[in-house]
Design a protein that fits this description.
The structure is a homodimer of 286-residue chains. In chain A, 41% of the residues lie in helices and 15% in strands. By secondary structure, chain A is α/β, with parallel strands linked by helices.
């Protein structure tokens, strides 16, 4: 899917909601647990219920890998069930030396047909390039994550940084990257464009959004951390939205585990609809 | 497997060789390609041929994921084929927020029974802790990688660093972590011990080994980059070996693709044996 198709979908739906399918077999409603393919049935019900209110689905690969071979199969079947109208993200946090990243790109862009994959930046340019070589696919690189551990390394202050980054298109002139995550975002942005790169920025980091928009005004940000992790949709939207929306805000647990009963899909739909309605207001206020 | 069992195996074999099963279906010998389960047959032949000369196998998950469901199955079967005498590593470069890393730990330590997994450090402490909670399992964190991209972020110089790290057991007093990778190694080392943590340090970074041994004299280092990537076993061994050996040196392409003909297993055995014999010399010279 192209970014412009995604932007059009966001405008039509008045929603920049991404539903996170972090499906844990232990947390799905009791009446489903007994059935074979319980996890797949749960995912299908959640997708049916939330489809009108969101523009994207994010499959957290860890939850499927934890179930072994069967889980990998359910991941494929879940992806196949999502209509092509919706932007699909493999939340896989992959990244390795070039010849290995090439294999990961094949896994998620060819063996499976995801629109996007999340990638960790620690190993640098040749670990990210193989993903960028795919047309109409999007690489979503970790910038500033939503967890407590984001303070351990991402916020470290650099003594030296590359001032030439301020000359890169799509990066605001004069922005200075002093902290590691700022440097990572600026540097990675220079390897692609807003058409094939997004960045993960946690919703719990709302105070940093203005700063991040100084560095990359045009790129989409994938924003986890609303809901169970406590991030504010209002704050994220206020500082993160740009002319194309430029945000995909993900909620996982708050939607898919909205109820433990037989009404789980209805409740998931209600929560997703409430997010959509709030998003419509913020889109109108831009 | 415990680290002391690994150390004992290294002493018995006079080898710290890890064989990397980065098996690419397109690169295996022509006579095998036609057969069903070609990749598994290839892996079994390589394991049989190299078993006497190595102490560890590293399965690069990307090459299996690229084949979809069938690849995941072959990964499981390959792991099951490796005798329990040998230390098994999932080279998976995983890492995510706590509840997700918990799922990755389940995937590789429970659904599959690997002894160790490689983990990326960018997301900090809560992304690594869930792996450390397993007894007799080892978490191998990226320190300084073997690829060109290691210069992009890992070598950045920090303005601020945590001097309290020099008070952590297993870290040499007075070592100062100025570069990002040094800081990562020192900080991560404080979250575990040499019994449950190793670090990835590329063989192409031989000049840095002395420095790294100043920070973590006791930890095992997993060293890729010998062979196809051009790293020197002699230099790595000179600066990296410690009293317990403290090194696992991985070779993948140089061993598994030593020949494209029907003699591929014999050739793999010869190359592995040559590495072992060279290692015996370095172990003797410590």
């Amino acid at each position: 899917m192209t970014i412009s198709s995604l932007v059009q979908h966001i405008q039509e739906k008045q929603s920049y909601l991404c539903v996170g399918l972090d499906t844990d077999l232990q947390k799905i409603p009791a009446h489903l647990k007994e059935q074979p393919d319980a996890m797949l049935q749960f995912n299908k019900a959640i997708i049916d219920a939330t489809l009108p209110h969101c523009v994207s689905y994010k499959i957290n690969t860890a939850f499927y890998e934890a179930m072994g071979l069967k889980g990998w199969e359910i991941m494929q079947e879940t992806l196949a069930y999502i209509p092509k109208t919706h932007f699909t993200i493999a939340d896989a946090k992959r990244g390795d030396i070039g010849n290995t990243s090439t294999q990961y790109a094949r896994a998620f862009f060819e063996a499976m047909d995801f629109d996007a994959i999340t990638v960790a930046p620690y190993m640098g340019e040749d670990s990210i390039r193989p993903f960028l070589e795919y047309e109409n696919k999007v690489t979503i690189v970790l910038g500033l994550t939503s967890n407590a551990g984001s303070n351990d390394f991402q916020q470290l202050i650099l003594e030296e940084y590359d001032e030439s980054l301020t000359m890169v298109p799509h990066i605001t002139q004069g922005a200075v990257s002093k902290r590691l995550y700022e440097h990572v975002i600026g540097r990675v942005a220079s390897w692609g464009s807003p058409e094939n790169l997004m960045f993960v920025v946690g919703a719990t980091q709302a105070t940093e959004f203005e700063n991040i928009r100084d560095i990359i005004p045009e790129h989409f940000l994938l924003v986890p951390g609303v809901g169970a992790q406590g991030g504010s949709l209002e704050a994220v939207s206020k500082f993160g939205l740009n002319k194309d929306a430029g945000l995909l805000v993900n909620a996982s647990r708050a939607i898919i585990y909205a109820s433990e009963g037989e009404d789980f899909a209805n409740k998931a739909s209600s929560v997703a609809k409430a997010y959509q309605e709030e998003m419509a207001v913020y889109l109108g206020n831009r």
